[in-house]
Write a structure and sequence with these properties.
Elements lengths: L4 H15 L4 E7 H9 L3 E2 L11 H12 L7 E5 L5 E5 L1 H11 L24 H9 L1 E7 L5 H13 L6 H8 L4 H10 L2 H6 L4 H5 L2 H15 L7 H14 L3 H21 L14 H17 L7 H9 L1 H6 L8 H16 L4
Parallel strand pairs: 2-4, 3-5
Antiparallel strand pairs: 1-5, 3-4
Amino acid sequence: MTVSSQKLKIAQTQLKSLQKQIDYDTRDFPIAYMVDRFKSNDYFIPTYQRNKVWNQHDKERFIESLLLNYPIPLIFLSEQEDGKLEIVDGVQRITTLVSFFQQEFSLKKLDKLTALNNFGFLDLPIAQQRKLKDKSLRVIVLSDKTELETRIDLFNRLNTSAKRATNSEIRSGTLSKNEFQILIEELAQSDLFQKTVHLSDIKTNRKEDIELVSRFFAYSNNYKNFKHSVTDFITDYIVYEGASWTVTKKRKLKQQFTDAFKFAQANFKPGFLQNDKNQTPRVRFEALMVGISLALRKKPNLTTNIDDTTYLLNMSEFHAATTTDGSNSPKRVTMRVELVRDYLLKERI
């Protein structure tokens, strides 16, 4: 389509007008400086900010990320005429730092730095306290010429427009040369998986198929060592197995996958992994496919029939075990996979 000169002129005028509404500069503020300014009421939280408050684990993961020197997303502030700084985006991060420095919470369930569990800020080694205080965070500071409407629009875009990468998308990038990850992605594309698991195009595009295969292997072979972070549990397992990769290991894992999925196709009705909303919840997938794999490990010549497996799917115990409430606690994981395993292994007349 050819754009007329008049439309082009209108577009250029609008662009120049709206671009002038944003004036900012980038700064690096030490954490101690930001905490002190907040405590001195030099920062304020605007009414348009979200009401969500981080839970305990959210706060702990943020502090842990800082201690691990992980990069932290930009914080957005806006200068006011009185010299105060409005927090456009970053309330949870700043208030968490203030609370931690004031000993208002301690670290309880860290994912990686487990030796620091039950540490408050003042319990950290002095060197780490100083490093945390001196660590700088990158901040975008909007000038006081930025109108409220623009600040609200910026906040909404920061918090609603972008889609975070899924865990499986991240693994596909960071572990692209890991032989186990390569096998997982290969099996996720196999006819055997595709004909057993029915995912929407949206789910497949976000690599949910790869996530499910990853969970199948991690829980089938290591569920008793699961603690509380599913992401780290799966990633660590793939890294560990991939580091000592052999042709024999590949053959064994591939056979484990094939046996479980062929057994499922032969002994469960089509669509058995879907709930009454035609969705495939991870907890249901894990319970059934991992449970099948565990049962076959104990009894390779295991037999059953569709009537028996349909009864399993309708059991109240199965429904209770595959709801999302508390689905990722070690106790729940063990309960749901062993429920299916034990049902399949039970002798029935």
